[in-house]
Amino acid sequence: MKHLMKEARLALYLRGDLSSAGYRAVAQHVAGCSECKGKLADLSQSHELLVSSFEEPTPDELSTVRSAVVARIRTRSRGPAWRIWAVATSAVVAVILILANLPLQTPAPQPPVASTAPPVAIRISSPPPPMIPAPHRRIVGRAPTMTLLTRAERPALLKINTSDPNIVILWQLNDSEKVETP
Amino acid sequence: MCHFALEPESVRRLMQAAKAGDLASFEQIVVLHERLVLRLAQRLLPNREMAQDAAQEVFLRLHGKLGKFQEEKDLGPWLYRITVNICHDLRRRAKPNVPLEVAPVLRDQAPDPEQSVLFAQRRELIAAALDGLTPRERDAIVLRDLEGLSTAEVARILGSTETTVRSQISTGRVKIKNFVMARLRRQI
Fold first, then answer.
1. For the purposes of burial, counting CB atoms within 10 Å of the CB of B70, is it exposed (0-12), middle (13-18) or buried (19 or more)?
2. pTM recorded for the entire structure
3. pLDDT at residue A77 is higher than 90
4. Interface test with A, best of B174, B181, B184, B188 (most A CBs within 10 A)
């Protein structure tokens, strides 16, 4: 019989990877061709070797993988230690800054009220004691101002004078930030 | 793909709980799929340590992407696909001459030393034959011949066509046959 069968086709025939028509054609050919029968036997032998050369994972291996995965997820959900410290430190600093800048409670200025009662003469027997400013008392009423400070080859700074002369905010601007100046 | 079906209702419930952050449910999902993932990794990689690393990476990625799964039936094909991809990455990053491991578990546990030596030789022979395949041929052979998936399933996992997969399978089988037979005849 004339030998026309390609080895690749025999390899597909081996495990039924051909169409039914293709399968029938190969089966018919192999039945009458000793060379192809031999090749098919070799393919079959190497396939058996392949399939029997791998064993299943052991319970120990499976358990090792599972424990490692769970442990890593737990660690990941907690976050790295440096991040926890960074968040905690930032929180403490923020609280300190807020407490340090809390304005003292001063009564709001009352608008003058017109009195209908007749004026009463008050006799002052002694001069009032001099006003002593309370320590750390903030001076209120100064309007905040902003100044843009540009520097050669360095990021610009926005200087904000707050109502408290003791507090000046310097804001370094990124390239993307723009300040509209009047 | 009925091959991937693992009690769909229970998997669906576990997926919902795991998406909500329940680690115990996620661990159950790992239990259901760990054999599939680790076995595939062991067949695609030269040694078992690398396979364990790959399996861990697969499940960590799964945990990070739980939210994207609409249905539990998507999980099986995704696990196959991601395992294949991770194994490729590990093989690429590994040193060029990673020693092939010759079934140490079976060798240690087999009651008959002669049998275990024979098995080790066989495993070494097949590992060397698989090394002669292109990565895609190896993937196709492992998924079709060792995992028993259909050509259509293999094509879907590898993002390829059935015709291409069939070509890879036939070339791979012939290459393995030629390598194995040449070695066996040399030994005789």
1. exposed
2. 0.67
3. no
4. B174
